[in-house]
Amino acid sequence: MRDTANPDRVAQELFDELPARYDRLAEVLSFGQNGRWRRAAVDHIAPDDPGLVLDVASGTAGVAIQLSRRTSGRVVGLDLTEPMLRRGRDNVASAGLGERVSLTVGSAEALPFPDEVFDGLVFTYLLRYVGDPQATLTELARVVRPGAAVANLEFFVPPNRFWRFWWWLFTRFVLPAAGFVTGGREWFEVGRFLGPSISGHYRRYPLSWHVAAWKQAGFDEVGVRIMSLGGGLVMWGRRAGGSP
Length: 244
Prior knowledge:
Layout: H1 7-15, H2 19-29, H3 34-42, E1 52-56, H4 62-70, E2 74-79, H5 82-94, E3 101-105, E4 118-124, H6 133-142, E5 144-155, H7 161-183, H8 185-204, H9 207-217, E6 219-227, E7 232-239
Parallel strand pairs: 1-2, 1-4, 2-3, 4-5
Antiparallel strand pairs: 5-7, 6-7
Helix pairs in contact: 2-7, 6-9, 7-8
């Protein structure tokens, strides 16, 4: 039985054994939209061409690689799960980006970096796995300089009742079955976990809470884009205190 009181442990139990299939399964879990959602998040970072970017919950480094390809600076990827990062390092090496992308183990709730060191930050599929989302947002804000762009990608629950019904059927029945067929027992467990995890998160922390929490953490110019009929959510903002 998973220790649901410890979100970090839940994340590690889910993903420790899955990195070899993660990129393929991510497309299944996101209705085939994961790549499009990633691009939409990076769209809010790339125009600044930041010199040093932090990618939190980097996983197999998909976002870190895209950041490196679309900016001229360096990217640091951080994730809680070492097996995922090992796969990420292989992906980075295959992309020929080893000199510009570095990956390290660490927790988003206690980032191992000094204040205001990064020129941009992206975090993906993160806040459902932390004990205190507000404190985690504040910690993310701590390590970026004033004026730096920040973006987030997350799953969402469709606000439209019709699409929410089909989303519920997909997440409760299709996802576990698709996970089992494409990834075995481990991905069946991920598929079975995902829908209730998303629904439960937004019952506790609705979208209005997220917007207010970003602002309380120290971000302004906060924006929201609901994607793919409500299956995905991209948010963005800037660390307050930059030059007008």
